[in-house]
């Protein structure tokens, strides 16, 4: 996932060249998917920087259904225009709550219509374990669910959600694989709601250090080793970040007790999704 808001501020020309380098690095590294968000100018910047021919499948996310289903459909069409694409691979409802609400069925019908018209090849939604992704999958029969799942938050695996989705024939894209940066910052830099878990996080980092395993390597190895996961979505802001991610992804899979490296489920649930600027 391209994260332009985390890139170092630069003049327009330098920014465009940096993005071209990022995309070319992705293509050369065998990355096949680019995930986007509808806010900001990220889609437009990507549309101006694709390598030709583009080797990427593109995932697009919707605006909130609170804007109205007409707006959701119009913005999904507009996303393709901004990206300079005749069609996209995947359209995701940005929040599972949008489907659980009163307009959920109407929203899903709009996505189905866009798929039937060939504008998007597949449709799905983003979810967390709390959203009950398997229940929603039975109701709406999505092609893909982008599910929050990482080394510190292993509830998707241990709750059986991943196996249930696999049994339903749903592709799972693991997101937030770097646990919102919690393994990459010191105790003083943790968000307030996570401060009391600083000792547990420190112990996890120490275990990784004793095993001579980099935290990025461990987080990627965990997500990529889940048999039900068909894609891992990691956010990057530059070619240098992408090269580090690719190198970590290609490192030998460490022999670790993954269960021992998770935070207590209650701690993860209390913290909720959060973005830390130093890592995604």
Explained architecture:
With 280 residues, the chain is α/β, with parallel strands linked by helices. It is 41% helix and 13% strand. The chain has twelve helices and seven strands. The chain has helices at 12-28, 42-47, 69-83, 96-100, 104-116, 133-140, 155-158, 161-167, 198-210, 215-224, 239-249, 265-271, and strands at 33-35, 57-61, 88-93, 120-127, 144-148, 171-175, 229-232. Strands 1-2-3-4-5-6-7 form a seven-stranded parallel beta sheet. Strand 1, helix 2 (42-47) and strand 2 (57-61) form a beta-alpha-beta unit. Helix 3 runs parallel beside helix 5 and helix 10 (215-224) packs across helix 11. The longest helix is centred in the first third of the chain and has 17 residues, at 12-28. The termini are close together. The model is unreliable at 273-280 (pLDDT under 50).
Short description:
This protein is of the alpha/beta class and 280 residues long. The chain has helices spanning 12-28, 42-47, 69-83, 96-100, 104-116, 133-140, 155-158, 161-167, 198-210, 215-224, 239-249, 265-271; strands at residues 33-35, 57-61, 88-93, 120-127, 144-148, 171-175, 229-232. Strands 1-2-3-4-5-6-7 form a 7-stranded parallel sheet.
Uncertain runs: 273-280
Question: Topology as H/E string?
Answer: HEHEHEHHEHEHHEHHEHH
Give the termini distance in whole angstroms: 10 Å
Largest sheet: 7 strands, parallel
Judging from the principal axes of the Cα atoms, what is the shape?
globular
Q: What is the mean predicted local confidence, pLDDT? A: 88
**Major beta sheet, strand line-up:** 1-2-3-4-5-6-7
Q: Which structural category fits the helices and strands? A: alpha/beta
Beta percentage is 5-15%
Number of H/I helices:
12
Helix content: 40-55%
Q: Write down how many β-strands occur, each being a DSSP E stretch of 2 or more residues.
A: 7
Q: What is the CA-atom radius of gyration, in angstroms?
A: 19 Å
């Amino acid at each position: 996932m391209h994260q332009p808001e985390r890139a170092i501020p630069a003049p327009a020309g330098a920014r465009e060249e940096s993005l071209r380098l990022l995309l070319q690095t992705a293509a050369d590294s065998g990355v096949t998917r680019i995930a986007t968000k509808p806010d900001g100018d990220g889609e437009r910047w990507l549309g101006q920087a694709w390598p030709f021919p583009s080797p990427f499948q593109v995932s697009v996310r919707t605006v909130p259904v609170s804007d109205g289903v007409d707006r959701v459909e119009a913005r999904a069409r507009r996303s393709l225009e901004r990206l300079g694409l005749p069609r996209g691979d995947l359209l995701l409802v940005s929040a599972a709550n949008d489907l659980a609400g009163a307009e959920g069925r109407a929203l899903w019908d709009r996505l189905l219509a866009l798929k039937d018209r060939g504008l998007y090849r597949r449709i799905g939604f983003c979810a967390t374990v709390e959203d009950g992704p398997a229940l929603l999958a039975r109701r709406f029969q999505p092609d893909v669910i982008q599910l929050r799942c990482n080394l510190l938050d292993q509830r998707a695996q241990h709750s059986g959600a991943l196996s249930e989705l696999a049994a339903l024939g749903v592709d799972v894209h693991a997101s937030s694989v770097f646990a919102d940066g919690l393994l990459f910052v010191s105790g003083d830099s943790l968000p307030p709601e996570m401060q009391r878990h600083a000792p547990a996080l420190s112990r996890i980092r120490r275990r990784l250090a004793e095993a001579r395993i980099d935290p990025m390597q461990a987080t990627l190895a965990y997500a990529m080793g889940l048999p039900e996961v068909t894609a891992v979505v990691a956010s990057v802001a530059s070619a240098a970040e992408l090269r580090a991610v690719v190198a970590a992804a290609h490192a030998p899979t460490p022999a670790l007790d993954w269960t021992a490296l998770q935070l207590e489920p209650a701690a993860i649930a209390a913290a909720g999704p959060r973005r830390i600027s130093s890592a995604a």
